[in-house]
Amino acid sequence: MRKLVLCSLLFVSAALSAQSFEGVIEFRKMTPFDTTNYKYFVKGNNVRIEEVGSKGKVTGVMLVDLAGKKVTALNMDRKLFMDVDNKPASVTGKPEVNKKAGNKKVAGADCKIWTVKNAAENTEVTYAVAPGKYDFFVPLLKTLNRKDKSAAYFLQIPDNSSVFPAEAIEKSGKEVKMSLVTSKIEKKPVESSLFQVPKDFQKYQK
User: Whole-structure pTM over 0.90, yes or no?
Assistant: First the structure.
């Protein structure tokens, strides 16, 4: 009986470790002009992105349906929502990828250092990449179609489908243009209601 229970526990543990990431990721975006805090809430094919102000107030929300490739923006103050349609970002030139740049610990994760250089755009992005089952991240970038070079360059990297860039530093020459730094990665159950438009919100009409 003891062996049976032990085998069952090991099976459950292995199954849980094989599941895609579910939980909360907190990070900060820094430029020479300002600093913005964000939170990702991740569950299956749903991601909620919160922009958090300096006093901890949520100032903006995006609900991302990865399966439907749909983005909905919420205005928390005015209780409005609207669909967001972004065109894919383009990259000039041919980025050079280096996955042998070293190691670094970020937000408790043992990360590999990857760099992407693009001479045509005079830009280099250095990533600290956390291993795991972060299967949501590449589909998230493709759905959002962000114009940030840190996002566009990451999509140029081969075999990037299950990792998460816990840190990204964008440079033009020696000048740091932008930094994304993760402060917390927490695996935990996330309520499904977080990915739904609140019932008292109205659709924004242009």
Answer: no
